Amino acid sequence: MDLLSYGDSIPDGDYRLHSAFANAINFRKGKLIVSLVPPRTGAGPLNLVIKQLPAGARRLRASRFYFYLDENRLRKEPGALYASDIPPASPEPETVQVNAAALAAILVRRAQPKSLAFIFDAALEKSFSRVFEKLMLARFKKAVSYFKGGDYPRGVKIMRGLGFGLTPSGDDFISGLLAGFNYALRTLRFDTRARIEEVYKHAEGTNLISNAFIRASYEGKVNAKVRRLMSALSAGGAGELAAAAAEALESGHTSGADFCAGLLFAVRDALNES
Prior knowledge:
By secondary structure, the chain is α+β, with helices and mostly antiparallel strands. It has helices spanning 93-110, 131-148, 152-159, 169-186, 193-201, 208-218, 224-234, 238-248, 255-270; strands at 3-7, 13-21, 24-29, 32-37, 47-50, 59-62, 66-69, 72-75, 81-82. It has a 9-stranded mixed beta sheet, with helices on one face. A hairpin with a 2-residue loop joins strand 2 and strand 3 (24-29). It is globular. The chain starts with a strand and ends with a helix.
């Protein structure tokens, strides 16, 4: 069993099985979730990437030099450590502005139906066709209206836990918001600290997996796909931006699109464009 990478935010200790899916086995220690994932999912602050997920894994222990997965010992090779901080860069705001507009167009064109990409093109709202979907859409739109008005606490309270999936769309969007505001803070040097704190104060709910992603974004920690997308926003050409966006959109059913929608909304908000 080969350990291809391990995240930089995994504390030592004993973890017990939380949930198992085709592309992730999740282990829990207190409120923290660590995920065992295949290469296609990729590196992340709380991910262990191995070539093939083991069937029936039950226990995980992290120590200074090793991970122990049931009876298997996996050495923490220094070269396999994934550094999840937002990539360092000092782009001109005008460069990010142009790339953000291009990313919005990519999301509108390529995002899955019923994702929050409708924020950037109202025509996408038509995919919410059933009665309960229309009611959910109305709540999403109400939350977004609060965000646009600068009332992030009220918007987050409406968005939290709202939507489909293992991690609801609203949670993924909130995680993207936090990542986007941290990108604006650390890369563009805009003072978004108050918005980060306002969002995070009301962001966590009862979904431990969502909470793990949200906390990572709050701390400025992102997975490899998002890290690539942020680098493309800072400096990438059109081809690299499209490739990075396509990779980020692969996550989950609508999770990637919902996260990217939150990230883009936050960046444009920081640029006074949302």
